[in-house]
Specification:
The strands form 2 sheets. Strands 1, 2, 5, 6, 7, 8, 9, 10, 11, 12 and 13 form an 11-stranded antiparallel sheet that branches. Helix content is 18%, strand content 27%. By secondary structure, the protein is α+β, with helices and mostly antiparallel strands.
């Protein structure tokens, strides 16, 4: 047994040298078990180039561990008044049916919730308003208890990237779309320089059934955590409203496209919410089948 291990066993640190030795041993032990560093650049490259590997459990689980350990920040976009960033976290959105288990009887295990499926043909009952964001032609529940679907829905299968945050950059008198590229470097990510706030939207990578990337989207989190860290269903009408620019009409939607690739986004890019879906959407679990993804839809309350 080494001196460091002996100190660890008795946990009796009487001198400064013992405390220093113990601290060094803890750092060494933590370093030997810590996952490999995950940088913002590497994460973007994985999403843009290796997303088809996300359906492989041996690739997915280590990546999730690295995402949770290092939580990279990535620049997403800018407007005249705001800048936007991604704070990586794969556990934000939950299935619309919170009672879903990890298996479907007779069908095998489901993929962990960082990978979900968006069903745009169903709008859950909650939130029930506002009426302008409800589609009277869409059902509120799935027609069958269990339903498999491998079509390339829009946006279909998703991998959760993390929370979209915004901050006022204070340079609205200088900023123009043409100057965005030259000003981008001055918006370097900083938790002290800017006051960041959650937009309520979670960024996701849209995946085709074969796992390949098909765009970056923002989906509003309808079951955020409350002050007690419990996920609570939103029932009010004031959801899905990203920061508004002064003088502009405030938008409201549940889902929109942000860009084609994660690496192609940044503070030099105009923040754009395109292909917007107004009504709430159903989120369901996913299972792998023959190197393809399949939605597993259960009745939504």
């Amino acid at each position: 047994m080494s001196n460091f291990q002996a100190i660890h066993e008795r946990i009796s640190l009487k001198t400064e040298s013992e405390l220093e030795a113990y601290s060094e041993w803890l750092r060494s032990a933590a370093k030997s078990t810590a996952p490999e560093q995950l940088t913002a650049k590497e994460f973007a490259n994985i999403i843009d180039s290796d997303s088809s590997k996300l359906t492989n459990r041996t690739f997915l689980l280590p990546l999730i561990r690295r995402m949770m350990r290092y939580t990279p920040r990535l620049p997403i976009g800018a407007t005249r008044y705001h800048i936007y960033r991604l704070v990586v976290d794969p556990y934000q959105l939950l299935p619309s049916n919170l009672d879903e288990g990890d298996h479907v009887f007779g069908s095998g295990p489901l993929i962990d919730t960082p990978i979900l499926c968006v069903n745009t043909s169903i709008q859950p009952r909650k939130p029930a308003g506002p009426l302008r964001c409800r589609d009277p032609n869409l059902p509120e529940v799935s027609k069958r208890v269990v339903q498999f679907d491998s079509r390339d829905d829009t946006p279909g299968f998703i991998f959760q990237l993390g929370e979209l945050q915004s901050a006022l950059h204070g340079r609205e008198d200088e900023w123009t779309p043409r100057k965005a590229a030259s000003m981008a470097s001055s918006f370097a990510d900083s938790d002290t320089k800017y006051h960041w706030h959650s937009t309520g939207f979670i960024l996701v990578a849209r995946l085709r059934p074969d796992g390949k990337l098909n765009g970056i989207y923002g989906i509003y989190n309808m079951t955020p955590e409350d002050d007690s860290d419990n996920n609570v269903q939103i029932t009010h009408d004031h959801w899905g409203m990203p920061p508004a620019e002064p003088g502009e009409k405030r938008l409201q939607f549940s889902m929109a496209r942000i860009g084609d690739t994660l690496g192609g986004l940044g503070y030099d890019q105009l923040m754009d919410w395109s292909d917007r879906t107004l009504h709430p959407v159903e989120l369901v679990r996913v299972m792998p089948a023959n190197n393809q993804l399949r939605c597993v839809r259960l009745t939504v309350a």
